[in-house]
Write the structure tokens for this entry.
Amino acid sequence: MPEFQRPRGTRDFGPGEMAKRRFVESNMRETASTFGFGEVMTPTFESTDLFIARSGEDIVNEMYAFEDKGGRNIALRPELTASVMRFYVNEMQSLPKPVKLFYYGNMFRYERPQAGRYREFFQFGAELIGAPSIEADAEVIALALASLKNIGLEEIVVRIGNLTILKSVFDRTDLTEKAKKECRRLIDKDDMDGLSKIMPEKALNELMMLFSSPEKSYEILNNYEGGIYLLKLIKKLEAYGFDNCTIDYKVARGLDYYTGMVFEIDAPSLGAEKQICGGGAYKLADLFGGQEVNSTGYAFGFDRIMLALENSDVKISGKKLDAYILPIGDNPNIKTDAIKILMQLRDAGISADMDLMGRNMKKAMKYANNIGAEKVIIIGENELAEESVTVRDMTSGEQELISTSEIIQYISK
Ligand code: HAM
């Protein structure tokens, strides 16, 4: 039994897994760039007060928060919206609006680990700051949906809600602010029994009517300003080419800073931890000492997306090795040629590796197969004499003698 184990709720990722993760990550980066978003990076830890300002004292129980050697209260970031908005307030307020930012990184939450729920996990997210419009909400949701489409994850459920509707129902009750917050939590958890114990009957009946398939009842939607907004938003998303969005008033979001539109995306194949994305419209800049601006954003649970892709028909093969070079024998000229060819290939952007273990032909072929090399380039005495190499295609098993000067062209085709 090894002496050291990884901390609870964390994971190690091997090269195969990392290749897949990087593929998805760069695909998402490309999509965000095509939407005109630019990448930002902020520190892994922040002052604990930043997160308390955003979510209240209780958040400390859910964070990796500690006092550093200088006596400062520090927390590992549990999400990135607060950090990005701090960065925006500190340095980006004078930029032309809207400011469109995206990010990728590791987050830390002190949770009870289970499948799809970790203490260190990764988010890919985006924030659109400074456009107080339905167009901004549509652009952000469209980016999330385009990102999922581009990685091939099609089996998703998109649920869009509007907190102003819940708020208007709550405001017609005499519930305290604390009780309203609890009601929002219960709705978010879909705990209708719990809700019926707190919510006055009239308001409860109104909510139940709303929760029963609102998209079918335009009449109900048209009774609420927030409902009309949602109908318009759905139309805009259809113009973007996304007609898979549904209205769901139960989307109440656990975090407290949302102001209007909120949305969640589920991958049903994941079971209990099926939520792969959460976001909405919010205001945070004034809380952090800046000028108030409207923002909309979301974050993907990147790890859950990887799990959902594994459950789907989409096959992401981690990038294979294009060429594995096998020098045969002890002739130093062969070894020198092998290195030259190796570096020519690498310089041309072809992934290439070389035998460093002095393996014989049989063992080298087995190894090349194991690491998923597409081609093996063999250089022996005959090849050296003819200024050529033997290239073996590992899928078909066919071999060809190729002139050294044509090797790059041959491997790249
Ligand atoms: P969130 O809903 O707390 O929102 O997290 C976003 C996503 O991160 C979730 O939908 C889930 O997929 C993933 N996630 C959360 N906790 C864990 C965990 N322990 N293990 C694995 N995955 C997890 C936010 O973080 C907001 N900052 C989103 C946002 C951006 N709102 C506006 N802008």
Remarks:
- The first helix runs from residue 15 to 34.
